[in-house]
Amino acid sequence: MDNNFKMVAKTLFGFEDILAKELTQLGAMQVEKGVRNVSFVGDKGFMYKANIGLRTAIKILKPIKSFRVTREIDLYKNVKDIKWEDYLKPTGSLAVDATVNHSIFTHSQYTALKTKDAIVDRFREQNGQRPNVDLRFPDLKINVHIDRQRCTISLDTSGESLHRRGYKTATNIAPINEVLAAGLIMMSGWDGQSDFMDPMCGSGTILAEAAMIACNIPPNLMRKEFAFERWEDWDVDLFETIEESLLKKARDFHHKIIGYDKSPSAVRKAKENIKNAHLEEFIHIQHEDFFKTQKAGDAKLHMVFNPPYGERLENLNIEEFYGNIGTTLKHGYPNTDAWLVTSNLEALKYIGLRPSRKIKVFNAKLESRFVKYEMYEGSRKAKKRD
């Protein structure tokens, strides 16, 4: 039990429930939901596991000290008192990032600078040497969080945001974030027990995340590096054991994942990304205009997509475009659960269908809606009788 410690997984607004469930299923202890984060307890192996295996986490932080701050000197003294030599060599490198909500600490970059000064001063006073700042590839990444009068200093175990899975080398205009894509698919209730389609697949993010969910493949196997790999206590054997144990839980998938896009360059990019992710055997991408297609077969279809909003494509007639989405779903896709995300709340009116679910989410800073349309079998059968 002594080897366990508290960690905090950061996520996007509205994904706290999904992330808490993911953590519980992975085996985390003392799982507690916050706002845009979930805290939990585990050991070093679980820290590795959380980074490799969580689909809806952006970062995993390891808090090392929490204290009250009312003045600037409180921050400096408390940070300087931390035994940084336990985490970093004097010849090493560091980076600090900060988020602040405080009447005195109003500027995150200034807060990060003061934190860095305190760490560097401690090293300089102890042995005359000081670590350097390296914003791109530091040996130690430190996170400062000040909310009102409470400051928490954490080690960033992940490094670069966990949405950067490593498979995406080609992107289009405003590609969907991988964590957002995975969270939406999970929120839609897709369990890999039916065919899946993204009819406007862009660079293939939703398709890749859907395939990894269906096959229970850990999302971050392709990552080049996690921050903890530069730590003093990095245990490569333990990491490989954890990775192997997660891979053993992969499962078979007996349905199809289909992607359409009417842009030839998008289709090319999507295929490239799917190949990078080693998911070609599960995903079929075709150059198609969704509005000219119909569903193949009578089996249940699960659809998740991220249509253009207007911000992304100039010269887009929003009323006509979203109207065509509704028409195509109604006449061409019976027995389909269709989910779409949009930040153009006005555009939803033009679809002309009544959504059965409507969930508030954020796409980057844009307030959006994730909506579900249930298309029943009846309409096509009725047409056939006529």
TrEMBL record:
Residues of the THUMP domain: 46-157
Coiled coil: none
Keyword Transferase: yes
UniProt keyword annotations, A-Z: Methyltransferase, RNA-binding, Transferase
InterPro entries: RlmKL-like_Mtase, RlmL_1st, SAM-dependent_MTases_sf, THUMP_dom
Highest taxon listed in the record's lineage: Bacteria
Protein name, entry field: THUMP domain-containing protein
Organism: Winogradskyella aquimaris
